Amino acid sequence: MAFVGIQFKRLYRLVLLPFLLTAGILLAGFLLEGIWSPGRIRPVMMVLTQVPVIAAGLCTAFVLNGDPLVELSESTPTGWRKVQATRLLIITVAFLTAAGLLFLGLHMMRLWPRDLGWVSIITPVGGIFIVNCLVFLIAVLTMSMPTSSLASMAIWLFLCFIWDPYITDPAGQRLVPSIIAAACAIFGWKTCSNTERNVLQVAEL
């Protein structure tokens, strides 16, 4: 727990970001509710609710590539893999929690786009999980912030414009991509255990 606390202190600003985004989107929904009809507000919410997913991928790319001290971590009992996995867990849990609060707020205001009931929470939560797991793999393989950031955007674009429009059921939308993303994260976890590779890859940057 002490190790998690240390990493949390380093990332607390990014941990606060999803909650600030959630508060901003809910405030926008509350203000628009008194001006526009729900039918006009939902398209706006459809755009705004994608912001946390994008931010989750970019923040994950940043925290997984923003520390050059790979060799130092690998020289301790902690290891680089534990550092990366802990950072991924902290950022992902923060964004998943904020996504749940965002859905809860908009659902109660009846402003969640394509609201099918409580099952709709799977869409934002699953999207963040998928993006972060895949960005973790890319970050492990490349150790490049630009590459990881571009990958996060590409994954989001695929989900938003190619996958989701044709699979409208929330459970169906997220089941197969989540399984693939989890498998990629496991592969990244195993790859990240290669101490010699981690140090050499950083030395080449």
Quick tags:
205 residues; mainly alpha; globular
Short account of what is shown:
With 205 residues, the protein is an all-alpha fold. 80% of the residues lie in helices and 0% in strands.
How would you summarize the topology of this molecule?
Elements: H1 2-33, H2 38-48, H3 51-65, H4 70-74, H5 79-108, H6 122-142, H7 145-163, H8 170-191, H9 195-204
Number of DSSP strand runs: 0
Percent in strands: under 5%
Query: How big is the Rg?
Result: 18 Å
CA distance, first residue to last residue: 32 Å
- Parts with pLDDT < 50 across at least 5 consecutive residues: none
What structural category characterises the helix and strand content? mainly alpha
What is the makeup of the main sheet? none
Order of helices and strands: HHHHHHHHH
Summarize model confidence as the mean pLDDT.
88
Overall, the morphology is globular
Can you give the helix content as a percent range?
over 70%
Number of helices: 9
